[in-house]
């Protein structure tokens, strides 16, 4: 253990994992403890050998995951880590140290235990990341890596010419490649050092959207205006086009007055329930803190917490309510969004064009589709048949027919070419 302690501190290791620790229940704490580290371990009760141990630096928040019950037949330890510096889209790290023998009859049980445990943790911590590592002794881990998009990152022999010790994780992009180190003591397995990559600077993307807000007070004021509005310039216009232009000129002017555009900035890692109001309150809270206004800061702090709690409830309630009217495919898509189980973006590869040049890729695809009909002569509008005058009389429209159609408008749909929101169309359909 002295050699192990020296290596951990010499390499500045925050988390150390040992498989085949050979710890036993009667082993004194002084024989297994390392100064400056907290120990999480599991040992065999009835036989020698085996066992796993995890050493975590004292300044890192770590705890044994009590929600997971490890079967007596397995040798693994689950530890929940909350370092001070984590990527924005990762809230906690679940580390599982594993040891299983080559001829163990419990390999299927271990696979089932790992999958069920990750499912349980993913429900409780939607933004969790995993590090499953240890001595797997040629056990088939394909199902585990595919189920949670984990990557096995060890690519060099760890015992003689075999890769027996593995690291499966979903956050390898923040770390350098693992390095082999000399074995400790009389071990026949090499040591593996896996350190963060300090040169990685993640670029965050901010999406800016221009939207309109539709508060109840604004809708009431707009309703009062549209009822009292004098549309004489529309009726007095000479032709239909002038009538349409006059109508939309007044309507668009009112839209800008009652529902002005608001710029909303969304971060690529924002939670689904985050609203512009929450962001505004957080900015106001920060301003009050910098101004040392403790009374205002306390009020805004409480208001932010209430708004976040309300936003979470509303988001999940609306998500479930919408699913009641969707097909199974929509169910699956929404569940993946709610559990943050999203796939990485798929790139379209076009020969001779870089994947990052999206405009050139789009133009190349358009040119391909155009080339399909390039040998066909365009239509001559002068030779198209005319069907006027019509055999039937023009259709007649009545106000109640217009109201019936406008009241069916789906208010959640985007605006049409005229830019008028479907929500307002349905709200004031009775005025038709």
Notes on the structure:
The protein is α+β, with helices and mostly antiparallel strands and 432 residues long. Among the domains are: 2-193, Endonuclease/exonuclease/phosphatase (Deoxyribonuclease I, Chain A); 393-432, no CATH class. The protein is 37% helix and 17% strand. It contains 13 helices and 13 strands. A six-stranded mixed sheet has the order 4-5-6-7-9-8, with helices on one face. α3 (107-124) links the parallel β6 and β7 (128-135). The longest helix is centred in the last third of the chain and has 30 residues, at 294-323. It is elongated. The termini are far apart.
Q: Which helices and strands occur, and which strands form pairs?
A:
Layout (H helix, E strand, L loop, with lengths): L1 H9 L4 E5 L9 H4 L4 E6 L9 E6 L3 E4 L10 E8 L9 E8 L7 H18 L3 E8 L6 H6 L3 E2 L12 E5 L9 E3 L9 E3 L12 E7 L3 H13 L3 H4 L4 H19 L2 E7 L8 H15 L3 H30 L4 H11 L19 H15 L26 H8 L15 H6 L5
Parallel strand pairs: 6-7
Antiparallel strand pairs: 1-3, 2-3, 4-5, 5-6, 7-9, 8-9, 10-11, 12-13
Task: List the total number of helices.
Answer: 13
Mean pLDDT: 83
Distance between the termini: 85 Å
State the CATH topology of the domain at 2-193: Deoxyribonuclease I, Chain A
Query: Overall 3D geometry?
Result: elongated
Q: What's the helical proportion of residues?
A: 25-40%
pLDDT < 50 stretches: none
The second-level CATH architecture of the domain at 2-193 is 4-Layer Sandwich
Spatial arrangement of strands, main beta sheet: 4-5-6-7-9-8
Strand content: 15-25%
The description of the largest β-sheet is: 6 strands, mixed
Note the run of SSEs as H and E: HEHEEEEEHEHEEEEEHHHEHHHHHH
Evaluate the radius of gyration. 32 Å
């Amino acid at each position: 253990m002295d050699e192990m302690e020296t290596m951990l501190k010499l390499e500045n290791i925050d988390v150390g994992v040992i498989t085949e620790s050979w710890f036993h229940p009667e082993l004194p704490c002084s024989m297994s403890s390392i100064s400056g580290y907290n120990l999480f371990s599991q040992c065999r009760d009835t036989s020698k050998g085996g066992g796993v141990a995890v050493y975590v630096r004292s300044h890192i928040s770590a705890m044994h995951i009590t929600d997971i019950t490890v079967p007596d037949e397995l040798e693994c330890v689950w530890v929940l880590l909350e370092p001070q510096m984590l990527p924005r889209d990762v809230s906690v790290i679940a580390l599982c140290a594993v040891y299983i023998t080559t001829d163990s009859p419990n390999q299927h049980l271990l696979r089932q235990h790992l999958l069920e445990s990750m499912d349980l943790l993913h429900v409780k911590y939607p933004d969790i990341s995993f590090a499953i590592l240890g001595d797997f002794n040629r056990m088939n881990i394909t199902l585990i890596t595919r189920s949670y998009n984990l990557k096995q990152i060890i690519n060099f022999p760890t015992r003689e010419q075999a890769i027996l010790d593995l690291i499966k994780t979903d956050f390898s992009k923040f770390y350098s490649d693992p390095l082999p180190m000399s074995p400790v003591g009389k071990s026949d397995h090499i040591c593996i050092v896996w350190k963060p990559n300090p040169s990685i600077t993640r670029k965050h993307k901010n999406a800016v959207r221009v939207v309109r807000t539709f508060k109840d007070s604004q809708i009431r004021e707009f309703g009062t205006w549209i009822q009292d509005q004098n549309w004489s310039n529309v009726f007095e216009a000479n032709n239909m086009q002038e009538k349409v232009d006059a109508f939309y000129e007044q309507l668009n002017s009112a839209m800008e007055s009652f529902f002005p555009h608001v710029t909303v900035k969304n971060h690529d890692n924002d939670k689904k329930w985050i609203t512009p109001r929450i962001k505004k309150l957080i900015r106001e809270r920060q301003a009050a803190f910098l101004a040392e206004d403790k009374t205002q800061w306390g009020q805004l702090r409480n208001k932010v917490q209430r708004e976040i709690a309300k936003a979470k409830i509303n988001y999940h309630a609306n998500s479930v309510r919408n699913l009641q009217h969707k097909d199974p495919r929509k169910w699956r898509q929404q569940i993946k969004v709610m559990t943050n189980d999203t796939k990485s973006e798929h790139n379209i590869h076009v020969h001779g064009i870089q994947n990052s040049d999206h405009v050139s890729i789009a133009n190349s695809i358009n040119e391909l589709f155009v080339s399909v009909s390039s040998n066909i002569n365009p239509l001559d509008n002068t030779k198209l048949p005319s069907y006027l005058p019509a055999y039937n009389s023009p259709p007649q429209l009545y106000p109640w027919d217009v109201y019936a159609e406008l009241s069916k408008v789906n208010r959640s749909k985007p605006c049409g070419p005229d830019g008028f929101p479907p929500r307002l169309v349905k709200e004031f359909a009775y005025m038709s």
